[in-house]
Amino acid sequence: MNQRPKLTLILPLLVIVLIVVGGIVFIINQKNNVTATPSLNADNGTLAAAVTESSDKNNVLLLTDEEIKARLPNLSDYPQDPKRIVVLEYSFLGDALALGLNPVGIADDNKPDSIIPEFNQQLSGYTSVGSRYQPSLEAIADLKPDLIIADDERHTVIADELNRIAPSIVLKSRGESYVENIQTAQLVGHIVHQDQKMSQVINTHLKKMADLKSQLATTPLANHSVQFAIISDKGMWLHGPSSYAGSLLNHLNIKSPIPEQTGEAYIATSLEQLLAANPDWLLIGRYNDHTIYDEWKSSPLFNQLTAVKNNQVIEVDPNYWALNRSMQSAEYMTAELLEIAKPKGKKSSSPSLKESN
């Protein structure tokens, strides 16, 4: 007897079951991965970072003077007017440049092109001290810095060694949210004794963001879910609601397809899990010419993605959306969202923006 009709019925059912099961597991995992905001190391104390936004979401809740002083109680340990700063994350580079300070050393992963043009235009030359993951202590020492700004997730383990080279501060960078990034900028302003100037920089930024946000509210993106992801030859990572890109989208009142209580910033994702999230718009930052995403295109599941069906998969520059977390990047990203939301015939040509279906 010919069994082909039965197989024709069974195979689609199996695909549906796999999608449903994968989606349930994905959502359960994200709900179970809720974590507290990582602590912020400052001098000899460890204080929890309080990160919230005001109720109308038009303004970021900044740290008070008392909170800043509580996190950085030993300000006298740091130079009054640092001239030779080494930064071990791109976000700290943005903070320094915003204050007119030119770091002499940067952990740039030995890839100067990964620094966004806005930063490069302000830099007057620097020395690479290696990767952000494992900066060269020898290269840092050779620069004879008077201040080192490091990331608490990557560099806490070498904090003592950094302090033997120069006064060092370990602040949050990797995995930070948009609000945390601005609060850290306040701390950087305090550590270099430029609180007032940093306050002016932040206020100017927030006013610009409020204007861009009001424009974005009238676009189709305001009523649809948007997801940013990094893709490489090793896999795809969704940037969740607690990540920099995810929290910026939330600040802009753009819906996330991932549960808000997800605590994990970067979520390793399979095609089945991506389909379970199924964003209306998918923004992807490519780290390699050939990625896992390109391999997924041959799967029948790929064409079931809403973003693929509607030709709403857009490639964006990961240097802005992931690496160079900063007020400058936030403004660029929001302006780019406005560009994405324009009708196709009205979009301007942008080298970092292209459809990727």
From TrEMBL:
The keyword Iron applies. Residues 84-345 form the Fe/B12 periplasmic-binding domain. One of its GO terms (biological process) is iron coordination entity transport. Keywords: Ion transport, Iron, Iron transport, Membrane, Signal, Transmembrane, Transmembrane helix, Transport. The keyword Electron transport does not apply. Pfam families: Peripla_BP_2. InterPro entries: ABC_transptr_periplasmic_BD, Bact_iron-sidero_bind. The chain crosses the membrane at residues 7-28. It comes from the Bacteria. GO terms for cellular component: outer membrane-bounded periplasmic space. Its main location: other. It is found in: Cell envelope. Belongs to the bacterial solute-binding protein 8 family. NCBIfam families: PRK11411.1. This is Periplasmic binding protein.
